[in-house]
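Researcher: Please generate the 3D structure of the following complex. Treat every line as part of one assembly.
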Amino acid sequence: MYRTKDGEELFIIDGHIAAWDASKENRLNDYGLQFIDCFYDYHQISPEDYIWPRDKFYKYDANTLVNDVILNGYADMAIFQPVYLNEFYKNGFANFDVSDELLKKYPDRFIFNITTDPRLEERGLEEMEAMAKKYNPKGLKLYTADWYKDSKGYKLSDPWSKRYLEKCKELGIKNIHIHKGPTVRPLNRDAFDVADVDDAASFFPELNFIVEHVGLPRLEDFCWIAKQDKNIYGGLSVAIAFIHQRPRYFAEIISELLYWLGEDRITFGSDYAIWDPKWIIEKFVDFEIPADILKETGVTFDMNVKRKILADNIAKLYDIDIDAKREKLKHCNLTSKAVTTPLRV
Amino acid sequence: MNKEQQVYEMLNKVYDPELDQPLTDLDFIDRTVITNDEVEVVFRLPTYWCSPNFAFIMAEDIRKYVSELNWVKKVKVRLIDHCASDEINQGVTNGRKFSDSFGNEAGGNLEEVRKTFEIKAFYGRQEKLIKHLLELGFSKETIRTLTMEELNKVELLEEGLDLKRRYLEKKMKLPESLYAFPTPEGELLTQEEFDAYLLNLKRTRLSMEFNGQYCRGLLEARYQLPSNKKSVKVQSL
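Model: Done. Output below.
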């Protein structure tokens, strides 16, 4: 819950958080170290007060996450978006122990999206079914840049990907979060190309495709496909972190997104623990698009739009009734704790 | 000019295909080592995971341009701190093609990628020049139908001349057109198409500029460089 200067209480859903374990003990090889160190470089664009020591960044526990995301970070609810990276980490990158612990303790606060990999073929479909039984998920996270044996990535247009999406339909998983990252294969093509999302979104109009990081670094291609397929959404994680060091660029991005996608298809995500949601939300709520940019695109970026981005849009995707949830969360022990405990660790 | 300056002069011509900015401006050149007629160019990228295909293109271009110096007999290219350093360094230094350097993983060469990004660079540069002309008071309609001959008669100051030179450098490589601002295929746009086309140009230019900021930020973090050392001029929209 974030209280604005005018006293309005904004309900907040952080659509993209992670619990990870990139500790030395869990790393399989140098790739595991390089992967988390790259995240740590991204982390450096945070305001100075929010920079973690490297060791804390490698692995953090459930309490740290609750403090940063819910108690300090203003989020009323948050969605886990786990990834495997099994070629880099012994037990995978996602720290399922932490997310399981939090889901059990605070079932009204946390949502868990399952993850899979279409290159697992039949086995993966079975695993998906088992996970669906355990978590009853409405969303699935796909990390198309993950390595698997000799393969360095996959596309949503691959035949097995389609079978997996078919399975999602069957299991009632309607929100597909895709990270379009640096897939390095096939190497000769533009690895960031988002055309496969276009393909999948047209093929599965009943599913929603939330492209995390709004397709960066292919913002222009992303805007283009999102304009055409109304079941494509832009997840603001990563892009929103530029609000601190490169505010003008953030202004340009958000104004383009509002122009091409409209205010109903943009969702907030902090990408915790790369960035702490607290400062992002504070800056986002206060943010104004400079007049010259507003004039160019003619978009509106007021509190109503911000409220949609911070909660309403993703609430619709996950069938969350915000008013009912607000009521229910009044009795959650985490809320009262927020008032009494000094929280920065 | 001493040898090192000559090498850097050539490196100014090597561009990151995705950002359409020279490696020298981006701080991607770590150092050069010159021993008689041999040159070693050491370069670095913002992350360990940057796309190997772009890295390969940059490495190839480093080799190509530095080899143009008549005293240079051998060019060794060394990309450091990257997941595909070995393949790229050995491949490019020995003049091998991309597909030979990566074996099964490559499945083809990089011509298509090069072409895609040549066109994006064309869009980006075209947009900047058009915007400049709009600011000078030209109407959209005049710009749409302007011929090359007319463009060359437009009196421009230093900034405009620079934008024009950069734009024509890319235009030259595409199918010839009598018109100054055609599509990459060389076709004149209709009045109805022109607004949407301009929005598309802007989106492409914006994306490239944003990625440029992104890459600079990451490189600064990775190598602890002073922030905004060479910050690019932020284009107002």
